[in-house]
Amino acid sequence: SHLKGNISSHLHAVITILEGLSEMKKYNGSKQKLFQMLDTCAESRPEESVIRLISFRQKSIHAAKPKWLKSLQDLVERYYKREKRINIRLKVLDVILDIFESNHYSYEEELIDKIILPFLGGSHTESEPRIRRKSIELLTSLCSICDTHKNLDLLNVLGCMIKKFVEQESEKYVPFDDLLIIVRGLIKVFKAKLRQLPSPFILRVLSLLTTHLEYQYDNPNLFGGNYMTRYEIFRLFLSLRAEDGSYHLGFFENDETTYYSPYIICRSPEEEEEAERLWNKAHSTSRPPSPSFGSKQKSVLYISLNKACLLVIQCLERESDWNGPHYTPKSPLICRYGKSINKFVTPLVLFTDKTSSYPCNLSNTPNKFNKSDFHNHSALIRALELGLLSKECNRMCIVALTASALEMKGSMYHLIPEVLLNFSKISATKFISTPILEFLSTMVRIPEVFSSFTDTNYFTVFAIALPFTNPFKFDPYTVSLAHHVIVMWFLKCRLCYRQNFVQFIITRVSVSGEEYEFICGGWTARAHTMASSASAIRPSSLHPLPFHQELTETCLDILARYMYGNVSVKTRRLRTADFILKNGHSASWLIGTMLITVSTSCCTHVAMRNGVCDRCYFYCIRKDEAKDKTDTRRRHVSEFM
């Protein structure tokens, strides 16, 4: 036995040398005989040597050679089915794919019947994970390539794999990675076959995906912690499109390109019911076919996405993974079912219900996850910002942003500079004057939102409000509110900023007043030259100029008074003056833009006791008694030291 071992080792060393010479193209002998010798001792050769042998034999397997299918079958039988080494088996799978791609146009059915189904049909029983996943990838690739009815057999194999995998619930182990590979492969098949005939492949793929998705929601304990397969399936559903007018089914790619199928039409539920009613009326003696997803008519396939839409609704109602509700509501799929929009809206509304268990029951949430993150306040505010660009809905969006500032102070704190910048880009029109000024007026009362404002942010506020002080363009309410906003924001900003704002505000307000005075003066002159008609100009329209002048004077007076000092509602009195004037009489007068208050003491000014009035006398007595109590207390020994 020792001698046999030495002979074997020397023989393998010689074969290795010959292989090296063959690789360097320095071997002058017969390569056919060399690899025949390798074939006889393949079990004892290293993996690299056997892989070279398989590559050599692959070159001789082609359709022009007799019995080439039998040669391929023998190769797969020996080096895939009987072999235990992983890399060799992986190499055989690559060989199968290469040969199928080269010969599937003429020998697709033979390759599937004699090679693919016999050797790969039971891949779900493979114990080695790398081999099992590679075989699944091979099957999905073959489904994308196959053009005949045999493709349905390959899809059935994948469907059986999914079924077998999920039936392993009793073993408390489900190969989620394998399921994910199958799902991604089926999605790849869907994209490849969308614009090809025969179209029923699409129905089978959708049936496999929706059936598996339903099973996952019916078994939340088994699949609850793994969301990737659901994520991939919903990404497919939410990427579907229906062409305007013709309703051809399409797919939205990542490069922002939509591809439509000329053979598949997406029919809405209402259209399906109408078509079925018309069919029954025309063929009252027979019943129409009722496939689960669509109906075939000539070369056009009518497909219904009811099941996909219902699964989206089911995800909104039952998904417990944070990533589920996070990506489902983005779908334009619901636009195809406008009359049933409430079915999509109701689960979304339940998210914010007080009795809702969200977000406490969600899993896979980020760190420091809170309720505002769940409600996605920032995304909501940004969505409303986008609505500001539309003339039809910008007014509603401004009102909604006002409510957001009151209800979502934390999120608005981070986004308020961006919101104000978008406001400054909107033209000052009557349509948005009231809501935008009410927004600014509301914001000034929420210091939690603007506490970190800089001088640039205050400049933006004044730039937004100042155009609305023009009385020629806007009504008195709007002009008054604009002055109110300017004054309030001026008083709220820091003292170091105010002197920079005064010149900016005065220049804009003065220009507005001069423009209005010029226009009103010309209008009045023309009015006097007209015929004496009482109804030509109303008297009230000739007198808003003094009102505007008063607003401007008041605004400028406040700017001048509080440019270097903070505003105080009441003048602070000394304690003595407060004592003297307490319970006294007071009266106030409005003189110009100033409020003058005069207060008198309730003292009788009659010296009754010790030269003072009764009120002052009793006050002095109480003060002396308090002082005597302080003086008569026991002194500490330290005071005598």
TrEMBL record:
Residues 4-96 form the Tuberin N-terminal domain. InterPro entries: ARM-type_fold, Tuberin-type_domain, Tuberin/Ral-act_asu, Tuberin_N. It holds the Pfam family Tuberin. SUPFAM superfamilies: ARM repeat. GO terms for cellular component: nucleus; TSC1-TSC2 complex. The lineage of its organism: Eukaryota, Metazoa, Ecdysozoa, Arthropoda, Crustacea. It comes from Caligus rogercresseyi. Residues 376-495 form the Tuberin-type domain. One of its GO terms (biological process) is negative regulation of phosphatidylinositol 3-kinase/protein kinase B signal transduction. This is Tuberinlike. GO terms for molecular function: GTPase activator activity.
